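Section: Multi-chain targets

For targets with more than one molecule, the full set of components is provided together so that the structure can be written out for the assembly as a whole rather than chain by chain. Components appear in the order listed by the source. The example entry contains two components.
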Amino acid sequence: MATEIETNGNGEGELYGLLAEFDTPGELVEAARKVHDAGITEFDCYSPFPVHGIDPAMGIKRTILPLIIFGGGFSGAMGGLALQWYCNAHAWTWNISGKPTWSIPANIPVAYECAILIAALTSFLGMWIFNKLPQVWHPFFRRDRFAHVTDDAFFIGIEARDRRFDQDKTTKLLQDAGAINVENVYLDPDPAKKQMPKWITAFIVASTAFALVPFAIAAKARNSKSTEPHIHIFPDMDYQPKYKSDQMMDVFADERANRGEIQGTVARGWLTTDDLFYRGLETSEAGAKWTTAFPKTYPDGRPFVVDMDLLQRGRNRFEIYCTPCHGYDGRGNGMIPERVKLTGGLWQARNLIEAPDKDGKGGVAVQMPNGQLFNTISNGYNTMMGYAAQIPHADRWAIVAYVRALQRAQNAAQTDIPADQQGSLR
Amino acid sequence: MSALTKSLHPDDKVKAGKLGSGMVKVGIGLAALFGILSIILGAVHGDNWKRFFYAYVIGWMFIVSIPIGMLWLVLLHHLVRGRWATAVRRLCECMTLAFPVVFIFGLPIIIALLAGYSDLYYWNHPDARNAALNPHMQHKLSAWLTPFWFAFRFVVYGAIYTGISMYFAKKSREQDDSGDPKISDRMRIASGPAMILYAFTTCALAFDVLMSIAPKWYSTIYGVGYWATSEVGAFSALALLVLWVQRNGRLVHSINEEHYHDIGKWNFSFTFFWAYTAFSQFMLQWYGNMPEETVWYKYRMFGEWQWVSIAILVGYWAFPFVFLMSRWTKRIVPSLVFFSVWQLAFHWLNLYWNAMPSYDWEVTYEGTQKLVQGPLMGSLAHHHVGLSAVDFTVWIALVGVLIAAIGRNLTGNLIPTKDPTLGMSLAHEQL
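Its structure, encoded as tokens over all components, is:
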């Protein structure tokens, strides 16, 4: 197209402006100063890289973009805080491990990231808007030489609409300023090419519409019913070639994929004949009763000793498995009953350390023999379910020992304190 | 960026002349006057010199932070083939050459430790080694925090810093004579390993001298935080030194507001980086909520110290962050001076806040029984900020030492006259 215009002379389109090429960035700066001094305002400089000193030479004021970016960053931080307040402290308050729903230190990382995100977007979009970008339909692109502006050429472009523009005088001004070449640039005679090309408009509209497709699908799925199975993106992961224990399998006579234990065998480590260790029962001729002591040995023959190591292990397990309901001190004030209380429920967790009154009422857990406490951990009690699947037998005994220590400590009398430390009591 | 260069202005005075000896006199005067005052005040404080030594550790960590910060700029400048800082690099090198004197003035801490003085570092107290009283500290005490091993490490740190700083200063002066551009290459090759050594040394120094004041507490980012606050102090000090040198008629044409702007930018960025590391340290320990970690913040978030914490948050971060962000605050001399002095004061306050809450070791039972239980123990009400005159006099005396130690090195050329990148640095412009 460009060559066509040149062979046809300036007969097509009206004059848009002058494009002058310079050899070095230094000459560009000097020329820009002369053009500015001549009182011309509708001009711009084009260079492959930022040139020091070009802004004052062109008489351009410092941009206010930094202030706008600061505003963007500040509103990002405030928006981040507001988002967290709305989500966590207002619309959907949720007790997470007793942490406060609204807490500035916890909110700072998100607020900080939001500040950076909005500041970065503001600077990116602000730069484009202030520079009136994109302008891929700019008339200067009609000159082949202008393509070198991203590589090794420096240009000043003066627009004809400037009120001091005079084709001959301005051309001379540029030549005097050291331009190695001054060209006239004409608008495209085709009015459609004076504005944003159709294909760019089409691309923006199409890509915007395309970006809305996932939202449209999601909106449709939320508001309609379907009998179709859902979409499997990875079918070989959803349907793996294997049998699950509850499935049918016609290889065997009973058609079960799950093969049970062979009659009369016990898997290694699963022999639980020791009633004392595995069930907390003392068996005799008269029958079985809950033990009030601890096992004498582990099944592998090691002696069972109630010492600090065992208590520490018991505490560790207790704080993992028992504290959610019974609380750290065993008073039944764990997170789950606390949340029940918040939501108006009546259910309470057992207070493990409550001592029985004079008539022997209450204090269920204190009065239980060790064996029954063990059995409670294994098989549950009232609404409490059994923990046999989660906690190994030895750890259940460690928890029993720790609960006993808790009961002792929480119901201690002043006389339990060693005489030499009585003074430190407050 | 265009590679524009300029040559040294013919009228520019680049020789130090008597500039340095004047600084030495002022420094020695300050150090002597306030040193004597500190000794008197320390003695009458009536706590077996404990306040004096706490103030000494804080003041010493303050003065060592300035050459530490500047050594980083010198190393980074070589490492990344920096251009803008060439014009101020000689002044940076003069500041880093203060290391030997500064480390000699660290010896009172070491001598006191070796002589068995146990009121400064609790880990040197006989109680600390009692496993019944402090069961969770014994591994640190036996492996790391012993007086001799501490003293040995201190000497090693001093030797490493002195060695690195002298190498780069000496090579740079050599280039002034020979003009050999290969010297720049050699310094660049050396700067990589030196930077790694520098990082480890700085972390270890902060762990040993400052963090071990509260020996039960620990934070792995502590060294980075100390380094960040050191850079704020160092760039503030550099700005003041540059302006002072120019006020005395040197380098008037060589260093201009474009260089001030970059010094201020570093000050700004490290102000934020310091806040970032300080918050990271706080955030993880606060959220993790483990007693041995949160105890350090407990005594700083509540009680009297919370006001100092808030003052640091506002004065050391919020205020300089908002104002140093602007262009003009870094380019106008009075504003640059104001922010440099401000940041140096808060840099000191930050170090004070790091060490001083550990000052009170006594726990009172029933108003009668007093027990020494070490730092960060007992009720919050017993932990006072208790600003004392000796805190300031020791600080000023040690700053006098630093001024004299820097002034001593201000000789010959104050700018690397034959550095190949000097031209670009002189023509430096902010976009």
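The two ends of chain B are 9 Å apart (CA to CA).
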